[in-house]
């Protein structure tokens, strides 16, 4: 508390309103992805391996094997995470009581257990149709398949998913994101790049034909995946143009999905100029779209600054997308989510109006001086205080809790 009071004074001397910052931070929901808890395995038990050019590498013990374990693990994780939380589900996490339904026949009732969980836990829900790890991915294609039976199957999955997302919004209030990411692409040089894209366009038109309340429809582009190196149907240009032409459909930015020198932090303002919402998948790519646990690195801070200084905390829907199977999965959730919140706090604790003024007046010397000075301000003191006020440990104590859970629960799973 003493440190907080001291540090707060220093920030206030810089023209930063710390209390308002903390209040705003506590209101920003982070949509935490369920799939860090079990390496994107899901509950379909079809024996299908993870496909689509994404990989969760590692073999750390204790991964959740069923809905009860995944829910219990997620509850553990969020007990160490301050602020507002949402849970982002994938269609392959449907809960079947007896009779199973294939992806194209999924219904809201298959997610009732998750709605009950969300209500009991006080969180919102988001949704992702699962267009991978399934026998109907034919020659690596789903919504862009030239095989009409295959394409129609996945269109039905897209339609079913939107209805599930709508049911979340209806049951829990507010909105529910429904994010379409498909793995479609080719390993080697295609003979036809346009055909698959026109079929994807048609599929999206069919999926979005139904008017549904509360659903925030998103499309997620990508540059390449493992085994899909030469061509991705759902490229950045494709989806950006689709979203621009189809009001109500939003272009989701995953910061692992661009060429390495392209920065999502630089893309946000371009989209803010045209769209009322920007959904995000915050991840960390190491040399490729590796989906490492989100670290508090420069790009994360830059993304947070873009959200905060343009007052876009209501317009940017922050979701996470990483999966590391080589470390304790609950710790992974806690580290990644808290880092996003830390980056947002770091961004709030800056005199943005003054710095904008320096830029506009061309005083780039003073601007750089300030930008660099901010880096060594003790923002951790404010973070610790914030965590305390939110009823979660500020420093490393959460780690002891995760290790106790590992010993008592995770290591007992075979
Ligand atoms: C894949 C995309 C996609 C997935 C999740 C599991 O590159 O980022 O969002 O990671 O849907
Ligand atoms: Zn993603």
Radius of gyration: 22 Å
Helix content: 40-55%
Which structural class should the secondary elements be placed in? alpha/beta
Whole-number mean pLDDT = 97
SSE arrangement:
Elements: H1 2-13, H2 18-26, E1 30-33, H3 67-78, E2 85-90, H4 112-121, E3 124-128, H5 148-172, E4 176-180, E5 185-186, H6 194-207, E6 215-220, E7 231-232, H7 236-245, E8 249-254, H8 264-272, E9 278-282, H9 298-309, E10 316-320, H10 329-348, H11 352-361, H12 364-375, H13 379-389, H14 397-408
Parallel strand pairs: 1-2, 1-10, 2-3, 4-6, 6-8, 8-9, 9-10
Antiparallel strand pairs: 5-7
Helix pairs in contact: 1-13, 2-10, 3-10, 5-6, 8-9, 9-10, 11-12
The structure holds L-rhamnitol (RNT) and zinc ion.
Descriptive account of the structure:
The protein has 414 residues and is an alpha/beta fold. 43% of the residues lie in helices and 11% in strands. It has 14 helices and 10 strands. The strands form 2 sheets. Strands 3-2-1-10-9-8-6-4 form an 8-stranded parallel sheet, with helices on one face. A two-stranded antiparallel ribbon has the order 5-7. It is globular and about 65 Å long. Bound molecules: L-rhamnitol and zinc ion (ZN).
